[in-house]
């Protein structure tokens, strides 16, 4: 253990003999301001106190640090050398003090979410999360399908339609419910027969997505319907097929969560309602969720956002 006892084998005094630190502080201010008077004002000391501190320093070092001319002081060669070292030392001390005074910010949780769910469901709601939980930093990234937590991902929202990484902990968020959607003003011609009953017309344009190629077939099976395909159009991404429905190009099979905002605003209608397809979305993590952790608070918030007044009637066809 190091001590300050002279003669002790571990004494720091045998290795380091520093000038008085208070004198160094007065010296630095006087050198920077080129004035003992201004240095005193900056440090809330008198001119005489600065002068005595500098004189003590010069006596300790055995050399002159300033040349005094009229009301100003100028550094000698020795003074410039000392100032360079003192400024560097003070900068190091200041940086260390700043770091200690300011606690490290918690690293942001990186949440990977399927792109269409991210765009149409999570991003419109996430400002409310930041407002309610300003102490939980969260970074959103788009990603679908297989992934590994080793890729810098802390959490992921995925549908259970593919194998998850080993030892993944899954927390249920909401069940998937699907149904055809289109613009309300086009629904009558595509989903009503001559008597006004709800029925999918053979001529109704169907919008498909390459990423959910079997969506229409799955929905028809769930509804127990057999229908010859009418006009069809395939889009590269699921999001595009939903946007095409908004644009009036046809009927698209949509999960309720992804179109609930468009349904509420009147951009889209769901003439057949929605029916559960047996799949669900989960929040995935590499470890079990601590009940008192930020992840637990995020999980509760996500589940709350998944609820809605229309969800209870999701399987009912629209009147």
TrEMBL record:
A Gene Ontology biological process term: DNA-templated transcription
Residues of the HTH lysR-type domain: 19-76
Source taxon at top rank: Bacteria
Gene3D superfamilies for the chain: Periplasmic binding protein-like II (3.40.190.10), Winged helix-like DNA-binding domain superfamily/Winged helix DNA-binding domain (1.10.10.10)
Stored Pfam families: HTH_1, LysR_substrate
Keyword DNA-binding in record: yes
Keyword terms: DNA-binding, Transcription, Transcription regulation
MF terms (GO), sorted A to Z: DNA-binding transcription factor activity; sequence-specific DNA binding
Family statement: Belongs to the LysR transcriptional regulatory family.
Protein name: Transcriptional regulator, LysR family
């Amino acid at each position: 253990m190091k001590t300050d006892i002279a003669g002790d084998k571990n004494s720091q005094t045998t290795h380091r003999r520093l000038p008085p630190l208070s004198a160094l502080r007065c010296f630095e201010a006087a050198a920077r301001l080129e004035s003992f008077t201004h240095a005193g004002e900056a440090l809330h000391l008198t001119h005489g106190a600065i002068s005595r501190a500098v004189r003590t320093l010069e006596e300790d070092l055995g050399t002159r640090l300033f040349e005094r001319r009229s009301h100003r002081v100028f550094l000698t060669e020795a003074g410039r050398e000392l100032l360079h070292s003192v400024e560097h030392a003070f900068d190091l001390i200041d940086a260390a003090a700043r770091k200690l005074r300011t606690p490290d910010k918690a690293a942001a949780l990186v949440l990977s979410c399927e792109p269409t769910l991210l765009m149409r469901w999570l991003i419109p709601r996430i400002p409310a999360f930041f407002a309610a939980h300003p102490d939980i930093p969260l970074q959103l990234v788009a990603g679908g399908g297989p992934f590994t937590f080793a890729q810098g991902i802390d959490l992921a929202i995925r549908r259970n339609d593919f194998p998850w990484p080993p030892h993944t902990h899954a927390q249920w968020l909401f069940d998937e419910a699907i149904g055809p959607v289109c613009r309300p003003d086009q629904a009558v011609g595509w989903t009503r027969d001559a008597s006004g009953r709800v029925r999918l017309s053979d001529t109704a344009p169907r919008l498909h997505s390459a990423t959910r190629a079997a969506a229409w077939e799955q929905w028809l099976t769930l509804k127990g319907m057999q229908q010859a395909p009418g006009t069809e159009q395939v889009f590269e991404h699921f999001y595009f097929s939903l946007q095409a429905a908004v644009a009036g190009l046809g009927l698209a099979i949509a999960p309720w969560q992804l179109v609930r905002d468009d349904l509420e605003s009147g951009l889209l209608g769901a003439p057949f309602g929605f029916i559960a397809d047996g799949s669900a979305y989960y929040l995935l993590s590499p470890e079990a969720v601590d009940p008192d952790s930020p992840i637990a608070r995020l999980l509760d918030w996500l589940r709350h956002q998944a609820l809605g007044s229309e969800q209870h009637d999701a399987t009912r066809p629209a009147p």
